[in-house]
Amino acid sequence: MTSRLLMPRHVALVPAAGTGSRMDAQLPKQYLPLAGRPVLWHTLRALASVARIDHVWVVLSAGDQWFDRHDWSVFGARLTALRCGGPSRAASVLAGLRAMQPHVAGSDWVLVHDAARPCLTADLVERLIDTVGEDDAGGILALPIADTVKREGGGGRIVETVPRAGLWAAQTPQMFRHAMLLEALSNAALDQVTDEASAMEATGVQPRLVMGDVCNMKITLPADLVLAETLLAGRQSRTERQNG
Ligand code: C5P
Prior knowledge:
By secondary structure, the protein is an alpha/beta fold. It has helices spanning 39-48, 89-100, 122-132, 178-186, 196-201, 222-242, and strands at 10-15, 33-34, 37-38, 53-60, 79-83, 109-112, 139-144, 149-152, 158-162, 168-177, 208-211. Strands 5-4-1-6-10-7-11 form a 7-stranded mixed sheet, sandwiched between helices. A two-stranded antiparallel ribbon has the order 2-3. A two-stranded antiparallel sheet has the order 8-9. Strand 8 (149-152) and strand 9 form a beta hairpin.
């Protein structure tokens, strides 16, 4: 590992303790098969393939019965599994931040990334790290909202068209200094926090918006898995063509 006396390090934290109830499957969505591997494997590979990411921590639920059934050896000592997941995504992230505390400095950058976003690319991670730089406010990948946004008032009827100017859809990774994120989440109402940035915003910080990519989609519904498989297969065949 790089010396802490030098620049702050970048590490990744992947909350993977959810049950993925919207997938209508026997398995949590991070373990569903995708291109011959569990979804989580692709997610971890994307992060581990970035040289500037020093280490990857994955947060599992205490009762996880699936992680040990798969082969993670390709990640070697770059990956640590923590069995400390909580009842919400934010609680899992907070537990992970606490568990990794002995191994990081408060100024180190933590990139929190959903286990269910397996199509992340190294280029996107590099863009986030480069754009945030050493800005203490941190930042997130996100996409400007292209569709017209409607608010439902109940019964499947529209009560309002929400002006979309300035609206972005948050993605992950979301990148913050370890000590600042730990403090923000420690003081937050965890069941209302759906991403790290919102906990940071509550402390008065204005995180940076960094252009994400539509391919960095979150697997939520069964059809998303088909889309992800198509995206990964397209990338694989492009790589094979380039390598002759
Ligand atoms: O369910 P959702 O798509 O919002 O989950 C986002 C991420 O948070 C997933 O990677 C999921 O495994 C994780 N999560 C968690 N602990 C929970 C709930 C969700 O780590 N209790």
